[in-house]
Amino acid sequence: MKKGIYLIAGLLLLAHTSGLAQNMKRHKIALFAPLYLDSVFNGANYRYGKEFPKFLNPGLEFYQGAQMALDSLQKMGAPLEVFVYDTRSKRSGVSDIISNPAMNDVELIIANASNAEVRQLAEAALRKKVPLISATLPNDAGVNNNPYLVILNSTLRAHCEGIYRYLQTYHSRDKIVLFRKNGAQENQLRDYFNDIGQSTIDKRLAIETLDVTNGFNSSSFTARLDSTRRTVVIAGSLDQNFGEDLASELASIGNKYPITLMGMPTWENIRAFSRSEFRPLEIIYSTPFYINRSERLAAHIGNVFEDRIEGRPTDLFFRGYETMLRFAQLLLETKTDVASNLSRKGNYVFTQYDIQPVFTNKQSMTLDYFENKKLYFVRRINGAMDVVRNAF
Predict the structure, then answer these.
(1) Deepest of 71, 122, 227, 238, by most Cβ within 10 A of its Cβ?
(2) Strands 108-111 and 27-33: what pairing?
(3) pTM value?
């Protein structure tokens, strides 16, 4: 990770702006990411010797992906000026950065940010009437009535809507059971499915509910399954431990019952599913991002990253790359009218986004924000993994 230390040392020297195509009018972009520069440097001295703290990785890899996209745009002569801000700076918080005169002419904001930071940035985007692309946060941060906020990492409700449509398409004749435990988030999941079912104009799914708050009871467990037809079990919790325990129980009886386990977007982080005990169980979960690392572009920039950093890039690196490249190109193509073109298709890098307006209050029809509604469904069975690109 020696090269990684050199990279962050280079970040310390970054003068907050990266100018491209200096001799023509440039479009300005502000990039926010948690870089922790003040925490890892004392002046020009790196605090950690030969070590590279793990807490640096998410923000740094997102930035590195964005920077690599800017390198590509620079080679194309793109007229851009990019301001990079560290959201973990001890000298200036997000509110201070927003009031910086350098932000006055910014036409696009891209952020890898927390709930509180997205709220502040969304308020600034609304005042300035420029788009804020929230690239990583999987919720609306309590923001509403703001047509300049774009959520790329789909919200929990969007996942429930996608799962419901997926089941309508592929499992409408199967038995469907929602396994849940007590909890505020679990209640929200249940309510989302109920609300979606009541408002659907297609065939309504008959979803049974089983409360397993007190643990998995094999007798009540199997009583909800059917040996003569497929049962789709929905894991009604984002808790990864709950999901792993549920999958383990179902895998142990999978030879007696045909089962499909539908999981949550957090399941992409459960490494246990690659173990042999889970191989016979069909496991499906949704994700708004899909990167085929064997495709030419992904393989190329992944190799460049590995050469520079001496490590394998995470999804945040690719997300930083595609977010910057796609929306910088949109800004360049639409110029001052980028906010009116947020739902425009095309400019795909890795992910086929489907950015749609969200109206939380159906009566007032007030546009609350834009959200990526495109979901991919990852399917794992017998040691193989494939991706179903939905057509909804």
Answers:
(1) 122
(2) parallel
(3) 0.91
